[in-house]
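Narrative of activities, Objective 1.

The group set out to show that a structural description can be obtained from nothing but a protein's sequence at a throughput compatible with the screening campaign. Below is one input-output pair from the validation batch, recorded exactly as produced.
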Amino acid sequence: MVTLTIDGQKVEVPEGSTILQAAKVVGIDIPTLCHHPDQDVKAVCRVCVVEVEGSRTFQAACAFPVSNGMVVRTNTPAVREARKVVVELMLADHPEDCLKCERNLNCELQKVAERLGVRSVRFPRMSRGLPKDTSNPSIVRDPNKCIVCRRCVYTCQQVQGTGVLFPAHRGHEAFVAPTFEKGLGEVSCVLCGQCIHACPVGAITEKDDTEQVWEAIADSGKHVVVQTAPATRVALGEELGMPAGSIATGKMVAALRRLGFDKVFDTDFTADLTIMEEGTELIERLTKGGALPMLTSCSPGWIKYIEHFYPALLPHLSTCKSPQQMFGALAKTYYPEKQGLNPADIYSVSIMPCTAKKYEAARPEMNSSGYRDVDVVLTVRELGRMIREAGIDFSTLAEEEYDLPLGISTGAAVIFGATGGVMEAALRTAYELVTKKTLPSLDFESVRGLEGIKEAEVDLDGTKVRVAVAHGLSNAKKLIDQIAEGKSPYHFIEIMCCPGGCIGGGGQPIPTTNEVRAKRVKAIYDVDKNMPVRKSHENPVIDTLYKEFLGHPLGHKSHELLHTHYTPRSRY
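Output recorded for this entry:
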């Protein structure tokens, strides 16, 4: 332990702690911008400078290690002035369009400027005049707003391992950009949106599609249906002022009805359907042959990653569409047939925790219904904006239920929202379908949690099935390299592109940190625990769907509507 003095207060902290960490112990909050609780120290913004007795220059509190007897001052006139100058220099070449920015009122630069009392900028305006990058359907990049904190670079390089973003140029000209300053749609970006969570300002945001949805709702000739992903129920409340990890399923359904959607359905329904198709596919590969290990296919960022970086391994992917796309196909085939509607009049919207879902819905092969299966994808943040714009007081809404028939689901579907959830749901069903026995316990604890890679072994009536789970693409790479080298010991691998799985998706509320992810994961499993049915194969509506429409898992109609193919892509 090390003892030091900060602003006259003695504090004892572990050796190796930084001044920033020590200050928090005594309730002193030093402002930061480039610092992120889940990232390595960068110390590039200098907003956190402090005075250290005996040092002739200011020191960055986020990086400077403590030592015995150290005396630190965080609030002297010189420190306050230095911080103001740093922020004013950033504001001098930052666009003055806060009222039009998607990060308005949730911008770290804005908050730091307000906190430091910056009311004017003493430096000349230096507009960069750079074009926005709108080259893909998911993410918009505005280099004019970049403050070069490098948080997005760390996420892209270290967390996701895609290596798309880099600092470019120097001084006033500096900003972060893809290689050769190409658009994100021209490089091997997987559109996961984790850079959006990392960015403290509005330099990277999701593409806003809310206006298209407003227009569809206002069109009396359209029958507008909406589906909500498993992870949205533990995140939308957070976006609208509730504590992290709040379960807001019923309020979300009520809010969507008040926005004007004709039917409110649950993507959990097709998560159960995914388990039926994917579980059957796994059993078929185990018994009749096929590429093993089989890899899950419901994370579109992960799909784009393997298409770019490991195209030779595409046969290992399950051919199942994601639950979003399965739902889209049924919403324009089975649903209109049951309701006597013209599928051409149906407008299908999905609420997702994910920015890559926008890209997935726009893939040219996602039209097996004869129409574009999903017309528009909104993130949780976009839905939050629509609810606020409509003047709906979310906190006072009475809870409501999903519409039938595509609103019935199980606990197995809910846990799709957390890393390990798809695997656990698949094991619950595969075990009982193969062994014809009831599982003694539904909780596969070994595949739960935020550890990067998890593994388990399941005995299916004498057949030992080894499974693994990875979340975050840097972790996924370790498992995929094993397959490429012919050394993988597994039969089935779940991969989620985003850290924590869908609860940490790029379209979730900001901030999304590991602490917040853990609260959302707990909420997901709480929902599962309280569901009356917790196994996908026991969903009565899924049974009816097969009897009335699909026939059986992996049947001709299922293959036509619920399965897909993949596209090898260049790494460059």
